[in-house]
Design a protein that fits this description.
Blueprint lengths: L3 H10 L2 H12 L4 H12 L2 H7 L17 E2 L2 E2 L8 H10 L7 H11 L1 H7 L4 H8 L11 H11 L9 H12 L24 E3 L7 H8 L7 H17 L7 E4 L2 E3 L24 H10 L7 H13 L13 H5 L25 H19 L7
Parallel strand pairs: 3-4
Antiparallel strand pairs: 1-2, 4-5
Length: about 375
């Protein structure tokens, strides 16, 4: 598809984050001075400046990761951006260079065992999370899943520190292929409580959203065979699932809600302008496209057609936000880049065309990623 009108719209109307990412990642037309100028504009955005106030002396940003905002009446996070994972997402979404002191210092703090222990000792349940930080890494629930993925999103996922997690992530997707039903790996709980969902043991290999994200942001695992494996696994995931499939992970004597690949392990739905399937709807499709699988994944193949049809003659991606369900999950409601929302790059949705820029950049990025997977061309 020719995206000239979409690109022209973004170049004329988008803020610095989209301008930078469009020209750096897709058009590849930034010279050094232009890049420095756009980055300086990004550093002046409200969220980036707020994040700077949460940087600690040891380099860690905020407190915890995917953690408690309040603990027994004590406010732990003044804003969601004070959570470590949300901070990492902002740095990643804003494409802050990995060499920037905030990103480099954050990763160094995560890789220092004494620092990490200290950062996860401020309330009792966080201390427990740290002590059990590797338990459930294959089944989709543990602290190190987050720590490894945060580093991958910050540009540090292709070195030796994160590589073992990439191997685990690939194995998690490979484990889907022999299954004809989740019941082959789940067990039934017998206590009869309201939320006594089927569970998997902590060492059972099964993919979660962070396994996918870590692979999406890294390169070293990519061989033709592994890329095909990911395409086959994602197609098979959808083939064996029907409707929601909530499960728990059993770690010791306790049961936890894992980080499902899609909400409640439902089948992944392709993009459609009239349906916002979940709060991380477009983000999941983007990360699948980032794998380099192209149209070999059926939901991506369908999404490409639907995205192209949803781009108007003016080059802007159109979505229907009038339906009640869509209003609830509308990107208009996104303020901070938490784990529970889609990606927002425009800082001020009161500004004319800001939301349209976010949606249209996503469409251009998505089609570029899918096209690059096949022919390495944009148009």
């Amino acid at each position: 598809m020719n995206l000239t009108k979409s690109i022209d719209f973004l170049l004329e109307n988008a803020g610095p984050v989209i301008q930078y990412r469009l020209r750096k990642e897709i058009l590849h037309d930034l010279d050094k001075t232009e890049e420095e100028n756009l980055l300086e504009q990004i550093y002046q955005t409200p969220h980036f400046k707020l994040l700077q106030t949460y940087v600690k002396a040891d380099g860690y940003i905020g407190s915890g990761a995917h953690s408690w905002d309040n603990w027994r009446g004590t406010v732990l996070h003044e804003t969601p951006l004070q959570d470590g994972e949300t901070a990492a997402r902002l740095l990643s979404y804003y494409a802050i260079p990995k060499t920037h002191p905030l990103a480099a210092g954050f990763v160094a703090a995560m890789r220092d065992e004494d620092t990490l222990r200290k950062e996860f000792s401020y309330i009792p349940p966080e201390a427990v999370r740290y002590e059990n930080r590797f338990r459930g890494i294959r089944s989709g629930f543990c602290l190190m899943i987050l720590i490894y993925t945060m580093q991958a999103m910050l540009g540090y996922g292709d070195d030796g520190y994160v590589k073992p997690f990439l191997d685990i992530s690939l194995e998690a997707f490979k484990s889907i292929l022999p299954l004809s039903s989740l019941s082959e790996i789940t067990k039934e709980r017998r206590n009869g409580t309201r939320y006594a969902y089927p569970y998997i043991e902590e060492n059972t290999s099964f993919p979660c959203q962070y396994h996918l994200t870590a692979l999406a942001y890294t390169q070293t695992w990519r061989t033709p065979e592994n890329i095909q494996l990911m395409a086959d696994a994602l197609n098979h995931y959808n083939a064996i699932l029907s409707g929601p499939n909530p499960i728990h992970v059993k770690i010791g004597t306790k049961y936890y809600v894992p980080f499902p690949l899609n909400i409640q392990n439902s089948p992944i739905r392709p993009f459609h302008p009239d349906v916002i399937d979940s709060i991380t709807y477009r983000r999941l499709l983007t990360e699948i496209a980032m794998l380099g699988t192209g149209e070999r994944v059926e939901v991506i193949k369908t999404s490409i057609v639907n995205v192209e049809n949803a781009i108007g003659s003016d080059g802007i991606l159109k979505m229907n936000f009038d339906r009640p369900h869509n209003k609830r999950y509308s990107p208009k409601r996104i303020e901070y880049p938490t784990p529970y929302v889609d990606v927002r790059l425009e800082p001020d949705y009161k500004r004319k065309y800001a939301l349209a820029c976010d949606l249209t950049f996503w469409a251009v990025q998505f089609l570029y990623l899918c096209g690059a997977a096949q022919s390495n061309t944009l148009r």
